[in-house]
Amino acid sequence: MIIAGIIILVLILAFICISIYNSLIAKKNETDNAFAAIDAMLKKRFDLLPNLVETVKRYMQYEGDLLTKVVALRSRASSPHLSNDEKLKIDQELSHEVKGLMVNVENYPNLKADQSFANLQTTWTESEEQIAAARRNYNAAITDYNNAIMMFPGSIFAGMLNYTVKPVLTIPEAERSNISAKDLFNS
Q1: Which residues neighbour 18 within 8 Å (Cβ) at sequence distance 6 or greater?
Q2: Rounded Cα distance, 95 and 105, in Å
Q3: Where are the alpha helices (DSSP H) in the chain?
């Protein structure tokens, strides 16, 4: 009877350990998958850029530096050897430059009326919304993963697997400030 009790106890502990281990692996894979979704959305954005730049070039003569920066960032983003952190840094830079580009569009009424630009702008907006949703999903997966590796008993297994806390995506301070409508219309 005692031997049967010990065997049952060992089986229960083994089941618990396997469940915790599998749960941690699943959460780590979810974070990788969530980042891959961001990566796919960024690729979509990078693929839209040449069309956007070519359409805008037809109208903008004076914003050449801005267009050159956007093209250069897109080229850097296409490099296959970028780390996730480098991809996110380029994404932030690109977001900043494209916002500047969209503000400059206000100075070109013919461009705003161009149907191909209007379509590109709509597609760009949808792409940005999808990227934002992918970022929210990534942060949720990271939070779930971090909770799992920091809480007991997962922390024991996380230590054995060398799992470490991953940072959530944050918005740069410059993008958190309120937008001044006055500045937008006076630029």
Answers
A1: none
A2: 15
A3: 2-57, 64-77, 84-105, 109-113, 115-150, 154-160, 173-176, 181-186
Angle, vertex CA 134, rays to CA 132 and CA 139, nearest 5: 95
Two tokens at 87? 């991809």
> Hey, what amino acid is at 34?
A
Tell me 169's DSSP state. P
Of 28-32, 76-80, 89-93, give the range with the top mean pLDDT: 28-32
Please state, as a whole number, how many other Cβ atoms lie within 10 Å of the Cβ of residue 34: 21
- How many residues are present in the chain? 187
* Confidence (pTM): 0.71
- Burial tier of 134 (Cβ tally within 10 Å: 0-12, 13-18, 19+): buried
Q: Which of these, 126, 132, 109, 1, lies nearest to 60 by C-alpha position?
A: 109
Query: What confidence tens digit (pLDDT) does each residue in 48-65 have?
Result: 877 777 777 666 665 667
